[in-house]
Amino acid sequence: MAPPPHLPVQCSKTMTVQGFGSLLGYLPFLLTLLIGGGIVMCYCMAVAYGHVEAAFPYISDTGTFPPESCVFTLFLNCAAVVLLAIFTLKYLHVVQYNRQCSSAVTRINTAALVIGYVAAFGIMVVGAFQETNVLAVHVLGAMMAFIGGTVYMFLIASLGFRRDVNFGVDERGYAKARLFMAFLSAISFIISMTASCVAWYQWVPFDPDSKSKLWNERDKGYNIHLVATAFEWVMALDLLAFLMTFSQELHIIQLQVVLSRLTEFTTGSQDYQRSLLKQIIL
């Protein structure tokens, strides 16, 4: 049967690019390297320039002032891209091994993917909008990242307790650990947010004219501020530890990219082609 007029004819030759199998399992390690390495670098720069106190600053405080803010944004954007890849691969992993699964598993898996994307976008927002420039947007991004990350952890952990879910590997041993990390993230978030609100309410800067630091150890409310920042670091490390548990599962899947070349185009009126394109878009 001849192809419809005015449509591209697909070449019969197909190229398959593969060989990413076991390498996918290293993505969580790459994410840890990007986030951990980036934060440590920004922390050292911020302390060296006198922009933060050495004892447990907010993670985003280490990337508020230049030049460390440039490095902070770069590393967070790279980490967000890797995070999107991990969330997508985990979603496809569950789909691939559970083609006959119940609708409940499908809904949980899809919800986890969407919420994971929201969390990754929140990380980009945190890196792009420093709190000294656009505080409301920065806080919104942080909420998207931490709340989204925590909800994602609970959703993925819940799949490990279902008997109708197959992961291709023995993942049941991770289920309790993942649930524990999800609760740890939730409790840390509540403590951090509560302490942060109290600290800001009590905050009286020791040097009101200082523009080089967000918090000073001699500020009123600094001790409760340390509680908030310490549990924020716990949340970040907890999320990284959670994603590291994906390594074994990602090792057993293989990514294939199929490239098909369009080689011929049939002739036809431009008006018809525009109308056809409009129909396809609509």
Question: What would your notes on this structure say?
Answer:
With 282 residues, the chain is mainly alpha-helical. The protein is built from eight helices and two strands. It has a two-stranded antiparallel ribbon. The protein is globular, with a radius of gyration of 24 Å.
Helix content: 55-70%
Distance between the termini: 27 Å
In what range is the share of β-strand residues? 5-15%
Helical segment tally? 8
Global morphology? globular
Task: Outline the fold blueprint.
Blueprint: E1 8-17, H1 27-48, H2 68-97, H3 103-128, H4 135-159, H5 172-202, H6 222-244, H7 247-251, E2 257-265, H8 270-281
Antiparallel strand pairs: 1-2
Helix pairs in contact: 1-2, 2-3, 3-4, 4-5, 4-6, 5-6
